[in-house]
């Protein structure tokens, strides 16, 4: 297994470059082939709108990709040992490899060889682990890629028939690239639709890719015992969304998709929880976090 992890680590830069290359090829195809066609058929103002929209998408894709790759997901090794020790509660486990306490929802990543806070998964396309501090960048990358793929597939699809038309011999000789990018965008869009839906579901239910397995096992055990299992981190759908994207205030429904550099509030090892016996957990960062020692509870 260690060998595989080492190979994965070495392959990652190539995978990142490959993904980036495809994105840039898509952009090149758009500007080189689709845009002149739009300008010729729909006029310059329409073409200008397409340029603005495509650049906005490209900026958001690259911004979130960059920040997901270069933002540490948060690891227990980055937290002061004493702070970790003070926060330690009954439900914490111990990682022998890191030789440190392992908070709930924290997992040891064998590729990074460290315990990652609120780890979702290790992403080879980002060459980084996706966890507490960079999860929102990962989901926003998926989101803008999803929108971008739908847009480029639509643009190339609308213009592909014209590219093959007999009336425009110049286009004919160049039709391969837009057609190839149409197939590419449509395929990636389909794959991203599944992946993005999964992460939207995880966010709304306050779960994670790794933790969903653990949560469903706990749920099954509770059901077998005739009890109902409640996810202690489930603050309600809106609050879960706000927590995942670290947005507050009345504009949260818009702010979640805006590019941001601000470090996510919270520490990643003591996570906001809804108190099953009381009102839903508040997300005020100045407030002490609710019941830091609580685990999945049976009601
Ligand atoms: Zn560890
Ligand atoms: Zn990792």
Automatic annotation (TrEMBL):
<feature type="transmembrane region" description="Helical">
    <location>
        <begin position="137"/>
        <end position="159"/>
    </location>
</feature>
<feature type="transmembrane region" description="Helical">
    <location>
        <begin position="179"/>
        <end position="204"/>
    </location>
</feature>
<feature type="domain" description="Palmitoyltransferase DHHC">
    <location>
        <begin position="91"/>
        <end position="211"/>
    </location>
</feature>
<keyword id="KW-1133">Transmembrane helix</keyword>
<protein>
    <recommendedName>
        <fullName>S-acyltransferase</fullName>
        <ecNumber>2.3.1.225</ecNumber>
    </recommendedName>
</protein>
<keyword id="KW-0472">Membrane</keyword>
<dbReference type="InterPro" id="IPR001594">
    <property type="entry name" value="Palmitoyltrfase_DHHC"/>
</dbReference>
<feature type="transmembrane region" description="Helical">
    <location>
        <begin position="12"/>
        <end position="34"/>
    </location>
</feature>
<keyword id="KW-0808">Transferase</keyword>
<dbReference type="Pfam" id="PF01529">
    <property type="entry name" value="DHHC"/>
</dbReference>
<feature type="transmembrane region" description="Helical">
    <location>
        <begin position="46"/>
        <end position="63"/>
    </location>
</feature>
<keyword id="KW-0012">Acyltransferase</keyword>
<dbReference type="GO" id="GO:0019706">
    <property type="term" value="F:protein-cysteine S-palmitoyltransferase activity"/>
</dbReference>
<comment type="similarity">
    <text>Belongs to the DHHC palmitoyltransferase family.</text>
</comment>
<dbReference type="InterPro" id="IPR039859">
    <property type="entry name" value="PFA4/ZDH16/20/ERF2-like"/>
</dbReference>
<dbReference type="GO" id="GO:0016020">
    <property type="term" value="C:membrane"/>
</dbReference>
<keyword id="KW-0812">Transmembrane</keyword>
């Amino acid at each position: 297994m260690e060998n595989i992890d080492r190979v994965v680590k070495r392959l990652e830069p190539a995978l990142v470059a490959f993904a980036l290359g495809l994105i840039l090829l898509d952009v090149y195809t758009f500007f080189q082939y689709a845009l002149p066609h739009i300008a010729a058929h729909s006029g310059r103002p329409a073409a200008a709108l397409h340029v603005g929209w495509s650049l906005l998408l490209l900026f958001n894709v690259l911004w979130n990709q960059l920040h997901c790759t270069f933002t540490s997901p948060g690891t227990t090794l980055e937290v002061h040992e004493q702070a970790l020790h003070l926060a330690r509660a009954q439900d914490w486990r111990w990682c022998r490899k890191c030789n440190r306490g392992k908070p709930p929802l924290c997992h040891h990543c064998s590729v990074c060889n460290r315990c990652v806070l609120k780890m979702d998964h290790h992403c080879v396309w980002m060459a980084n682990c996706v966890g507490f501090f960079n999860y929102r960048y990962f989901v926003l990358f998926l989101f803008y890629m999803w929108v971008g793929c739908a847009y480029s597939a639509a643009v190339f699809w609308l213009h592909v028939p014209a590219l093959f038309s007999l009336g425009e011999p110049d286009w004919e000789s160049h039709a391969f690239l837009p057609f190839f990018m149409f197939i590419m965008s449509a395929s990636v869009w389909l794959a991203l639709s599944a992946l993005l839906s999964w992460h939207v579901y995880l966010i709304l239910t306050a779960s994670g890719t790794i933790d969903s397995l653990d949560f469903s096992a706990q749920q099954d055990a509770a059901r077998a015992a005739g009890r109902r299992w409640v996810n202690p981190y489930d603050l309600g759908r809106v609050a879960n969304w706000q927590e995942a994207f670290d947005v507050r205030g009345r504009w949260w429904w818009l702010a979640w998709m805006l590019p941001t550099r601000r470090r996510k509030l919270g520490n990643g090892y003591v996570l906001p929880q809804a108190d099953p016996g009381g009102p839903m957990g508040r997300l005020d960062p100045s407030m002490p976090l609710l019941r830091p020692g609580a685990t999945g509870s049976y009601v």
